[in-house]
UniProtKB/TrEMBL annotation:
It comes from Thauera phenolivorans. This is Methylated-DNA--[protein]-cysteine S-methyltransferase. NCBIfam families: ogt. Keywords: DNA damage, Methyltransferase, Transferase. Residues 92-173 form the Methylated-DNA-[protein]-cysteine S-methyltransferase DNA binding domain. The keyword Lipid biosynthesis does not apply. It holds the Pfam family DNA_binding_1.
Length: 175
């Protein structure tokens, strides 16, 4: 007799990974792929690029609905200013990097090195802060590039995340 999935999993010491859309108040379709929205009492707690094929999820609360509307408005106009409550997170250094990134206008880029010089830091530290950014698009880390090319994105060096970065930069350059 065939065992159920729950029976088959019993006794394993490693839990199965959660589905890609799990834990999100919404998963919306954006031109570069699915995008997850996490909310908390203090505001948005995370925005996440999700793998292609992740199922969409209608907004579960008013904040997720507002965030989805704001993200779609940004897709229509990259000069759209976000006015979303963000849960406070990150180290003081990360928050300084994220503030500096937020000052880069749409259609422009800055290198990790030049941002590091402005902040009196190292390019690698700026890159790590970019990779830890919990609010991509709102804090537009895609506007930070390597001196020799596009650089990484969301802790990825290739694949669909880098394709999303290319799309975002091209989208802003067209406007």
């Amino acid at each position: 007799m065939a065992r159920s999935a729950a029976e088959a999993d019993r006794g394993r010491s490693v839990a199965a990974p959660a589905p890609a859309g799990a834990g999100f108040a919404a998963v919306i379709a954006l031109p570069f792929g699915p995008f997850g929205i996490r909310t908390a009492d203090a505001g948005l707690s995370g925005l996440v690029f999700l793998p292609p094929g992740t199922p969409l999820r209608a907004p579960a609360d008013a904040l997720a609905r507002s965030a989805a509307e704001a993200l779609l408005a940004w897709i229509d106009d990259p000069h759209h200013r976000f006015a979303l409550p963000l849960a406070e997170c990150g180290s003081p250094f990360q928050r300084r990097v994220w503030a500096a990134i937020s000052a880069i206008p749409p259609g422009r880029t800055e290198t990790y090195g030049s941002l590091a010089r402005t902040l009196g830091s190292a390019a690698r530290a700026v890159g790590q802060a970019c990779g830890a950014n919990p609010f991509p698009l709102v804090v537009p880390c895609h506007r930070v590039t390597a001196a020799t090319g596009i650089g990484g994105f969301a802790n990825a060096r290739d694949g669909w995340l880098l394709e999303a970065k290319r799309w975002l930069l091209a989208h802003e350059a067209r406007r």
